[in-house]
What does this fold into?
Amino acid sequence: MSDQITIEALAGQVADSDLEQLTDLLVDVVDGGASVSFMAGLTREDAREWWRRTFESAGERSVILAARDASGIVGSAQLHPAWAPNQPHRADVAKLLVHRRARRRGLARALMAELEARAAANGFTLLVLDTCQGTPAEALYRGLGWREVGVIPHFALTPDGGNCDTVFFYKEIGARGSGLGARQSW
It folds into this structure.
């Protein structure tokens, strides 16, 4: 990856400038047609509010990454622990976002590698995610060693209102069977 991109975790009270840049990122990704839970016409106000709620609700073991270049935040990815008491070893990967001006430079791969490393360091051994079938994101996850569980047809809508068949993936990381569970206190 070139052009001096750094990746860091954001937590707690995020700076206003970071919140604005994350807002720009989300709007750009949706405007670019990526299916990341939002429909076309996403307003800056709605995007900003979504980011505020995301930071407010992030748990202690959640990770929200921001990738920066000389112009500011150009990418992000999130890791959210499973809520269930019998799943302290599992987390969901969400919202891998790369600004259109920063694509094709290995940023998505770098964000995923950092997220997986932080997940393993936090004791997670199983990660799950989903994405629209037939997209560059699907090819990315396959190339990173994620394993397909299955496809649910018409699971979500694309930003323009079309149907999206959704592929579910998982990846085992870290020490599988390391005794995590009821004995472990989080």
Notes: The chain has one domain: 6-172. The chain has four helices and seven strands. The radius of gyration is 16 Å. The helical segments are 16-31, 44-57, 107-121, 136-143.
